[in-house]
Every structure is written in C-alpha cells, then in structure tokens.
Amino acid sequence: MFEAFWAGLSGLWGQPFLYLTIGVVFGSVVAAIPGLGGLFALAVVMPFIFGLDNLSALAVLLSIQAVSSTANMITSVLFGVPGSATGVATVFDGYPLAQQGQAGRAISASVTASAFGGVFGAVFLVAAIPVLQPIVLAFGQPEFFMMVVMSLVIIAYLSEGDPLKGLVSGFLGLLLSFVGQEVSTGTLRYTLGQLYLWDGLKLVPVVLGLYAVAEMLLLANQGGSIARGSPDLGSGVREGILDVFRHWWLTVRCSLLGVGIGIVPGIGGEVAQFVAYGHAAQSSKRRHLFGKGAIEGVIGPEAANNSKDGGSLIPTLAFGVPGSAAMAVLLGAFYIFDLQPGPTMLTQHLDLVFFMVWILVIANVMGSVLVLATTKWLAQVTYLPSSLLVPIILLVSLFGAYSTNSHPGDVITAVLFGVLGYFMKVHQFARAPLLVGLVLGRIVEKNLHLSIALYGWTFFLRPITLILILITAGVIIMPALRAWRGRTAIGRA
Amino acid sequence: MALVMWALVMFFVVGALGFNAKARVLPLTFGVPGLVLATLLVVREWRRPPPHAHPQESRETATDRRQFVIFGWLAFLVALYFIIGFAWTTILFMLAFLRLYARESWRLTLWLTAGTYLVLYVIFSAVLRVDVYRGWLWYWF
C-alpha cells in the first residue's frame, strides 16, 4: 500500500501536473459563472482529452471536479446567485455577510472549509478502501428513500422567517417536483400539453431563476450596491480562515456528512449541502443568526460540498457505479482509456487510485489558494453600482439556463421562476424550502415506489432503514426536548 | 402573495384528482396538507389589520413605479433574446440598459458591452462551441 501511495504521487510529476493546473484554473473560472458549474466544464473538456495520456486526462478531469465545488460559492457569496445547484446553501448566510461588508470573510471561510472538506474526502477514500464493498452494497432503495426523508426533515429547520410561509414554500416545491412523466406508470402530470415538461422542471433554470434573476430584479429595484458600509477586507480574509479553525469540530462533522452522502449513489451533491446546513443550524448555539450571516452557515455546506467528491469516488472506483453525474463523466473517461473500475482497480491499479487521491488533495488546496489570492479583488465587486452588475448577471443567467439543454424552454423557466422568486422574497416567503422540495421530491417518489415493489411495506424494517428512522425521529424530538428543558430550567430559576 | 401560493397549491391538488391511482398518491399526500397550510396562511393574512396610510405612501408609489420599470426591462430582454438571439441581445441590451437606465458614459458602456460579448459569445460560443440560441429571425430566414 505504501508503494502505491508514493507511486501515485510520483505519477503527478511532469505533464499531469501541468494539466492539473490547467484544470484548476479552467474549472474555477467556469464554475464561478452561474448556471454552468463543474459538470459543464467537464463536458466541455471531454473532447480534448482523447489526445492525452491517461494520467493527464484524469488529472484535468478530477481537478475540474475538485475545484468546481469551491469556485461555485464565489457568486453565491458576492451576488446571492448560486454558481450551480450545489452552491445554493452558501447563499443563505454568505450573501447576508457580503451585504454587511464581510464578503472577504465569507469567501475565505468558504475556501478554507472547502479545502479542508476536499482533503478530508480524499483521505477518507484511502481509509475506506479496505471496507468499501459491504458499505456500498448495504444501501438499497429503502435506505435511499429514508435518507431523503431524513434530509427533508432536517431541511424543515431551514425555513428562516415565518415558519408557516416556509412550510407552504416547501410543499409547493414538493408538488413542483411531480411535474412530468410519472416513472412507474408513465402518466403525464401537470405538463400543460408541453413536450418540454415531460421530463419535469430542470433544476438549473429553476435555481437560476429563483436566485439569479430574482436577486438581480431586487438589486435593480433597490439601487445602490450589494454591500453597504465601508469594506474591511484585510482582517476579513484572516478572520474567515480563523473561523474555520474556531469551528473545527463542525467542519469535521459536515465533512463526514458530505462523504457519507457522496458514497450513496443517486443522492447527489445537492442534498449534501442542505443536510450540512441543516445540521450546522440545528447544532449551533446561535441558531437565530442563521439566514442573517452566521459564518457556520457558510462553513458547513462548503466542507460537505467538497468532501462528497471523495465519497462519490468510492462507488465509482469500487463498482463502476457513478456516485454523481460528474462521476458518470469520469467513468466515461475510464472506459476511454481502458481502465476498468471494480475489484481489479483496487488490487492491480492501487497506484492509480492513490494518484486520484493526490489530485483531489492538491487540486482542492490549489483552488482554494487561487480564490484566496483573488478574494480582495472579488470582494470589491460587491461595492460596484448595481446598474453595472444587473445586466451582466441577467445575461449570464440566460446564457447558463439555455446551455443546460439547448432548449429555449429553460430560459422561460428561469424567467418565470425569477418573477416568482422576486415576489417570494418581497413578501418574505423563504425560497430555500421550495428548492429543496423540488430536488428531494423526485428522489422520494422514485425510491418509495421501488422500495414497495422490491420489499413490500415491510421495507421499513431493514436494519439501516431503522437506524435512519431513529436518526430522523431524533432530529424532530431533540430540539423539542431541548426547548422543554430550557423552559423547565427557567421555571425553576 | 399568500393567495397566489394558495392558488398554485390548489392547481396541483385539483390536477392530481384526474390521474390514475398510483400517479396521484404522492401529489395528494403532499398537496392536501400543503393546501391546508396555504388556507391557514390566507386566513391569517386576511385577518391582519390593514396598514394605516402614512407619509411614506409617496415613497412606496415611487418603488412600485421602479418595479414596473425593472419588469419592463426584463420583458425587453426576453423579447430581444427570442427574436434576435443571444449574441445580438448581449450587445443591444447592454448598450440600452447602461445608457438609458444606468446613464453611464459611452466609454464605460462600450467597454462593458465589449467585455461581456467577448467572454460569453466569443470564448464560450465560438471557441468552446457552446450552443447559443440564435433567435426566431435566424431560424425563419
């Protein structure tokens, strides 16, 4: 194992390191553009890898994937516009921090947490190699279903402001997830006679509309700039880095959550950020600050976002089952270079596995340093007049929405959800529960039907499913218990 | 806005009644509680005392006017996009918005327009071959 460890590192010398650097820079720039994201960057680069050797190709692809989770928070913090669907949770507290003139602190905390999470995920990948098989094979549809229900319950705590309005948003999001063709019967639901809606609402245009278009409409309406007050960028950057160390235990827990969710194929990175955010909010003594600029609300999702990459490599390498859409692209690259995922990858090509671990570690650190080095300049953008930012970001959003599927329907979706998101924010309806409901609703339905078909209604009695039910019950009961204890203590005093 | 949310949830619940048994399970499972909550919200909002007239009313009218203008620009952007396509929309919208709405100088307007066009259209579309929408006029002619 040690020989493979050093062989993996030595594989980086020369051309692979050059392509790693190219991947870091390219991935950072593309992922920072709303609507494009890491998956887009991977897709764009794929045609160019045919002329490369396998190490260089893996270096560029994995480095893009590693840094995209880091870079997509830039617009989340600066403009309240998620760079991709995995950058949404960072908006909740990152953008309020930027509005308070603390963009530098928010960005540096994000990248430091991202670097930690990315390295953690890579190290976990190495540690998990001997025990991979039973972990991944133990998860089936009932476990997926329960995991998503658990996520939905945790996310219920995300509803900032009026809880009743938040719940209505959440239920609307769940209902929106049912637009399209129902999987088991093929019934068309809520398609309004439009072929475009047969596949359901696409996530990227909805995210761009709810957050990018809506925020730009709000910004144009209010005028001025994103941030108010005088900037304090120097100490802010240092402060953000120190914040991650102050909250080191939260960073570790959220990194673990990210790895755990990344390991489970089909759940996706969108879930990791929300689960981590919900956990950070629930476990914090300053819960009332979440949604208004709590630094933990930035650290948690960013650590989970990056650590999930290491986790999602586990089923990809061990079984050829991609842990996420990006891993599916990577799997394609494996087959192009005649690399077979599976037991042979872990026994005969362990040096290649360690090579990929080193790429994740170095790319995460390099990407974080790159963003940190430009943080002061980036934070200045929040002080630009809104009239300069609004047209550019609106155009970029439409570009990003269309690029998803090259269908003009996505642009209409983005605009309609932009108008909805604008009025939701004006009338204090939280948008996060709507988005979470949309993402998780599809997964819930698919896995519920499969669970019943495969195991009947007794699927709840499977061991891991029971554990997840207990955790979910704990999530609901613990805060109520804590509140009751607090009232009892006050009563005694 | 509460009424709009209620109407949207109601649309999904009523729509679900027309589906077969399996297809309507989850829409109704989530739709009915959602409708109950939305109804509670509408009642709560309706029972709130109406805001009294105050001196800020003229400021709120100005905000409504600004909101109308912003949505007008959004409609203009979308119309341009679908008629002439993304490339020309980038140029025309940037020029119009920066000069007419933001009232920026010609120099800054031209620099920003050129920069945005360069990044979005030249680099992503022409070099990286990312597909951009060309507009109804291009497809018709």
Structural features, described:
The complex is a heterodimer of chains A (493) and B (141). Chain A is an all-alpha fold. Chain A has 23 helices and two strands. Chain A has helices at residues 2-10, 15-31, 37-45, 54-71, 73-79, 88-99, 103-128, 132-137, 141-155, 163-176, 203-222, 233-246, 248-263, 269-283, 296-319, 325-336, 343-347, 350-373, 375-380, 386-405, 408-426, 432-455, 463-492; strands spanning 180-181, 188-189. A two-stranded antiparallel ribbon of chain A has the order 1-2. In chain A, β1 and β2 form a beta hairpin. The radius of gyration of chain A is 22 Å and the shape is globular. Chain B is mainly alpha-helical. In chain B, 80% of the residues lie in helices and 0% in strands. Chain B contains six helices and no strands. Chain B has helices spanning 2-16, 21-47, 57-84, 86-101, 106-127, 136-140. In chain B, α1 runs antiparallel to α2, α3 packs antiparallel against α4 (86-101) and α4 runs antiparallel to α5. Chain B is elongated, with a radius of gyration of 23 Å. The model of chain B is unreliable at 53-59 (pLDDT under 50). Chains A and B meet through α10, α11, α20, α21 and α22 of A and α1, α2, α3, α4 and α5 of B.
